Amino acid sequence: FAPNNKKLNARDKKNYAKMRKAIFFMMLKAESEAIKRNPEYNMDDRIMLDKIDHQNGTITMEDGAVFEFDDFKQDFSINKLTDAENDILDHLSEVFSTSEKLQKHVAFLMKYGSIYKICNGNLLYHGCVLFNEDGSYAEQTLRTGTFSGKEYFDECERIVRRAYTNFFKNKMDEHDLDFCWYLWCGKMSPLFGRDKIATFERVYLPKEYGIEKKNPCYEFTKKKEFCEKILNDFGVVGEHTHIINGHVPVKQKDGENPIKAEGKLIVIDGGFCRAYQTTTGIAGYTLIYNSYGLRLSAHEPFGSRDEAIKKCIDIHSNVIVFETTSKRLTVGDTDAGKELQKKIDDLQALLESGLL
Q: What is the pTM of this model?
């Protein structure tokens, strides 16, 4: 697979397109099997291959619209993985699972990462807390029970860690592994936050079919009272508390502000990735938290190292100071400081008891 189509000749481009198409349909087949194994995902509408009439080369959508494509008449478009395709997927799985660098990255993620983090009065998560249209928490039923809000976040993390641990014990649970995939694109995944992943529609269908509807949470959390509800449910209370939310590029070029809900919500996934910069107009944000309070730094796009050297330019940033404390914070005001104070108190108690 060449990294850039421009480096391919006409014949290789044609072969490259065939390979991409083949692996795309293999992905659709594997996803269809995962959805059928887990009816609680409620994702039958995403089994796109069952909507295809291979004899006529057409696909019928839920709204009754019919589209015709030559691709749907190909042999690889049948709805079940062939033996050869299973061999390819088994090989890919082996390559990924035995990659030393990848395993080091995943081990680091499992050791230090979490689906959410509470730090110094701030709740950090990437995605959303799922809501219904009426403002109530949305519930998701899994094999282990029905969950919502913080409990759902905690259950998601338990399943992922169980899948990771069992992988190395050769005790893999197929449903746990399926759930790791579900977190990437499931309509009730707190890491995804949309009603569907419209990869198929964006490849084959008109633009209107490729729209991914966001969970109502993204609108509700623009209001202070909803942010405070989430913070309270996660046990984060106090005057200077915030939700720090990634995953949503902020369109600064259109005047959008990353600080929302009267300062209770901070969206900092502003688009450091170059692909997002035409949408956002900037190259991402950095949130700075120190003893004086909170600042947000918006970065201008950076061209290249060579360009920076030739033109003597650097990454320029605009800093927004949006919350200051009435007095400077000390170590004792932080989570780490409170933990140290607890240890000091325990040692003091031991000294006073005469046990030390």
A: 0.83
